[in-house]
Fold:
Amino acid sequence: MKPPARLQPLIEEGLIDSVVRQLMSGKEAMVFVVRCGIETRCAKIYKEATKRSFRQAVDYTENRKVKNSRSARAMAKGSKFGRQEQEAAWQSAEVDALYRLAGAGVRVPQPYNFCDGVLLMELVTDAHGDAAPRLNDVAFTPEQALQHHATLVKEVVRMLGAGVVHGDLSEFNILLAHTPGVDGADGVDEPVIIDLPQAVDAAGNNHAQRMLLRDVANLRDYFGQFAPTLLATQFGPEIWSLYQAGLLSTDMVLTGRFERSPASVDTQAVLREIDDALAEEAARKLRMASA
Structure:
């Protein structure tokens, strides 16, 4: 196909040889399948994010560091240049998170390059070599649901160990990839986490706890459709309490049980949770309608 204008600089630089097809288009980015030598990869072209609410943007970008003081001042003022810099910072947050998580052994697409608002990364595939499906496009047996849920809970723990909370984890941004077996053995299907521009620093963002609890609750609610026993679990609070106590590790066995200590109710926090739940449900319905 004819290469989009945004990919032309990468072709001229020799980072991409040809564009095969468009893989998807969302409100934040378009993704294309591309050829790089003998390898097939994907190129994510970021769009200008005009549909994120101000409050959500503030929640996600809290305490993100900007090295250039001029950019920081412009972003604070909200000037045109500042908005451009803010969008660049939003895009680079996903790149930074991918490199950090890939280095920590989290199952995310391997990033290769980031140039002019285009992220070049691994194409996650199924058993036939085609683009892997999202979880929301797949039905599972109870056993498969329990297995994938356990795998993803471990990935959340591994991410937290790397200092990252996804911030928007759900069945819509997890792919089911196929890993070939060794010496002719059957391969396995395993989840791969994608879409990380909203990732937050676990220690530096005051909303990290709420986002992690929501991420884990999304996993529980989705896989609970196939394995109802998961609906009674409390992995999110258990993970965060262990993290706060400095006791969380990737090899520990979690129980899914958690007893809250009696404390005064923070009414404002409860109202924020309700607002977030309503916004999340509206976003999920929008994604399902456009899927």
Notes: Confidence is low (pLDDT under 50) at residues 51-56, 71-76.
